[in-house]
Amino acid sequence: MKQSTDRILTTHTGSLPRPQSLSQLLVRREKRAPFDAAALEREIAAGVAAAVRGQIDAGLDIINDGEAPRVGFSTYIIERMSGFGGEQRRKPALDMQRFPGYADHMARQIGAADDLARVWDTAEAQDAVYYEDSLAGVTAELDAFETCLAEHPAPTETFITAASPGVVTTTMLRAENNPSYPTDRDYVLAVAEQMKKEYDAIIARGHLLQLDAPDLAMERVIMFGDAPLGDFLDRVALHVEAINLALADIPPEKVRLHVCWGNWQGPHQDDVPVAELLPILYQAKVGALSIPLGNPRHEHETVAFKHNPLPEHMVLLPGVIDVTTNYLEHPEVVANRICASVEAVGSRERIIAGTDCGFGTFASYEFVAPDVAWAKLGTLAEGAAIASTRLWGH
What we know:
The protein has helices at residues 20-30, 37-58, 94-98, 100-110, 136-149, 165-171, 184-204, 215-218, 229-246, 274-281, 304-307, 331-345, 370-392; strands at 9-10, 62-63, 81-85, 124-131, 157-163, 208-212, 255-258, 288-292, 315-319, 352-353. By secondary structure, it is an alpha/beta fold. The protein is globular.
């Protein structure tokens, strides 16, 4: 994993705006509605090409495929793993319970409808889960990305995202009558064993692996919204244990871990403080942590890394761009946020500037207009350049 040796490097969190035509086809495939397979293949290729070109044009250093081939950052796994079926409704976040007017507003954006991706009405684990032996899905995604990369100047580094065992198991819940997993622990560890196949395949192709694990913070206000904090932290520890099991054969410096509180533009008044999480997150066998620090609810928590020092082997990817608002951050604001992270960590080399979360975590689920999203990534690069001048004096 590259570090910011002579300037602040830039990256993002994974998902980028998809063309509407691609999103529509991905949702139809997920819903098992009729769709044109050849058209979807063309749209995926075009979507990946647009994502790669957009990142390079924005000036980012460490790039990916924008998750263009996926209907959702977590739910895509249903298309690669057996054992899921039916439908279950996840508990609403505390934001929705405390602010019913806001809940009505959100239902019009990320509700359950035929033309929307399955976010709160996903399948459940009804039997033993098994990742496809052919690895066809991940192989096709990697092939499409590498085809596009060959047509552009080589970036500083590349990464591919993958759902963590924890986010799979808190999104696609275990059916109570699942004959293979009598407890959630059994289910979580089984998913870790299966997801290892995807993680290993990504590393084998020479990319960094980013594990998307919003569950490590977000589930405090969903699954554990009515539970004591200790119960939630115990579950976080289990999910980190599962991550380490799945990463058994991968060097930590090849892995980034993204943790967040959910990227909906809501109140977030009940989010767990990052200081409660850091001691457990530091147990993950990864080389970098991606944490949102660019939004109004969590920007102040940058200082937590001064009181809970980042392990020497880890890099911090602070989110310095809010992905839920169409406000375009000023480059000086971005630079200020980057420099605050440098001060908190005590090292400019171990800071890589990023975004709070993805711009298109699910197809049909975006809060930021695509042209603004790309402008935000350009501002990220501009802000990093300003911060680099401050920090290195050139």
